[in-house]
């Protein structure tokens, strides 16, 4: 019974469809995909000639999509500020001056500088830079407390580094040099 309903529906659609479009159209075996127009009397007429010509339907070829990887744009990096080069005598003078200014022992400042960098203000080890091997965060913290320029290139300036180290010792923060504080 369930199979009879779809068959009957298909038959009725086919029969009435033929009578709607006209039996002649289907009996000629013409292809329905051709262009037909409705003329004034209501019948369908092939727009081009009744002689069907077969023309191949072009198969669309998929366009190749280029997968573009993003081109990294160089991020602007600050130009390093060249730092003055000081003699060991000048560095000793800075130590004496800032030790007196902040009331700290100059020998402790010398000891930490020798231990951290071998008394070389241009030493860089990983993220630690300068005479006292300040990290970026530590440098910025103490320079802000001092009210001084926080530019990290100044870690390579012996005078700036001695002042910052003397100030940190004045605040009793020698823990920033865990391996070198006396």
The dominant shape is rod-shaped
Distance between the termini: 102 Å
Question: What is the topology, as strand order, of the major beta sheet?
Answer: 1-2
Low-confidence stretches: 25-32
Percent of residues in β-strands: 5-15%
Q: Can you give the helix content as a percent range?
A: 40-55%
Summarize the biggest pleated sheet. 2 strands, antiparallel
Q: Gyration radius, to the nearest Å?
A: 45 Å
What is the mean predicted local confidence, pLDDT? 79
The CATH first-level class of the largest domain comes to Mainly Alpha
H and E order: HHEEHHEEHH
The total number of structural domains is 2
| Number of alpha- plus pi-helical segments | 6
**CATH fold type of the largest domain:** Lysozyme
Given the helix and strand composition, which structural class is it? mainly alpha
CATH architecture group name of the largest domain? Orthogonal Bundle
Number of strands: 4
Descriptive terms for the model:
182 residues; mainly alpha; Lysozyme; 41% helix
Describe the structure.
This protein has helices at 4-21, 23-27, 88-102, 106-117, 136-146, 158-170; strands at 36-38, 44-46, 124-125, 128-129. It is mainly alpha-helical. The protein folds into two domains: 4-46, no CATH class; 88-176, Lysozyme, CATH 1.10.530.10. Helix 3 (88-102) packs parallel to helix 6. Residues 25-32 have low confidence and may be disordered.
């Amino acid at each position: 019974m369930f199979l009879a309903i779809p068959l009957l529906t298909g038959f009725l659609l086919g029969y009435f469809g033929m009578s709607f479009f006209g039996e002649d159209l289907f009996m000629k075996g013409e292809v329905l995909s051709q262009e037909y127009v409705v003329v004034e009397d209501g019948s369908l007429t092939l727009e081009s000639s009744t002689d069907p010509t077969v023309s191949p339907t072009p198969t669309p070829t998929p366009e190749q999509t280029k997968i573009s990887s993003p081109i990294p744009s160089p991020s602007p990096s600050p130009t390093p500020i060249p730092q003055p080069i000081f003699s060991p005598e000048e560095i000793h003078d800075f130590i004496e001056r800032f030790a007196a200014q902040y009331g700290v022992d100059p020998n402790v400042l010398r000891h930490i500088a020798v231990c951290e960098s071998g008394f070389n203000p241009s030493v860089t080890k990983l993220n630690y830079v300068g005479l006292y091997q300040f990290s970026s965060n530590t440098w910025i913290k103490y320079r802000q407390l001092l009210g001084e320029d926080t530019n990290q290139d100044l870690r390579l300036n012996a005078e700036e580094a001695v002042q910052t180290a003397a100030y940190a010792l004045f605040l009793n923060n020698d823990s920033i040099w865990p391996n070198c504080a006396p």
